Amino acid sequence: MKHTILILAAFVVFISSCKKEVDPVVPHAESKKVTNLYAPADVRDQTTGEITQTNPFVYFSFAKGTAVDSLDSWDIAFKGTVIITNSGISGTGQAKSTIVNSTFDDLTEAPADSELKEDSATAYAIPWGSGNGWYNYDPTSHLISPIAGRIIVVKTNDGKYAKMEILNYYKDAPAQPDPTVDQGSTLTFNFVYQDNGTNKF
Question: Which residues contact 102 (CB under 8 A, 6 or more apart)?
Fold first, then answer.
């Protein structure tokens, strides 16, 4: 009887050791919101279209979750509707980015690195212009509206991954913005920064 029990115990140990190891569960990174990030566009003469005042970009770090100095490690930068990435012609960093058509919650994995881009002399990684990237512009009302389902994905300057969704272009994120009254170039957005080194959100 004892002999039989020992054989059964050894068999159980053997079977257990043969089980495939289960991959550890990757914890979901916390979603955060940035409100009223003011990044004014250049001022243009309404008649000639010429720039009469050049404003600086506002640099942003996903790791810090806030605007940073240009000399710090930054990932992307804002000026009006323009978003640049810290790489290529825009910076000395290693960041890359792209826009993915999805919803913020459904996008649970960053695209392959081959799909992420640096800013170049011919195009920004995050396209600029109405309908091209993250927003639409109405020439009649002059309203700038984020396009639902346009999620910005960034491989950050420190080699991690982040996703962001711009929710509003106007101060205090009014439900029905009025460009003649509400301050523009004042972004509200959600983002997730995955600091564990995976590309899973």
Answer: 149, 151
- pLDDT tens string, the chain, 201 residues long: the values are 444 444 444 444 444 444 444 445 556 689 999 999 999 999 988 788 789 999 999 999 999 999 999 999 999 999 999 999 999 999 999 999 999 999 999 999 999 999 999 999 999 999 999 999 999 999 999 999 999 999 999 999 999 999 999 999 999 999 999 999 999 999 999 999 999 989 999
Domain limits for position 75 = 28-194
What total of structural domains would you count in the chain? 1
Q: Is 100 helix (H, G, I), strand (E, B) or coil?
A: strand
Report the Cα 183 to chain-centroid distance in Å: 23
Query: Does some domain include residue 19?
Result: no
Predicted model pTM: 0.85
Beta-bridge partner residues of 151: 100
Angle at 118 between CA 155 and CA 132, to 5 degrees: 100
Residue 79 belongs to a domain: yes
In a domain, 2, yes or no: no
* Residue type present at position 91: G
Domain assignment present for residue 13? The answer is no
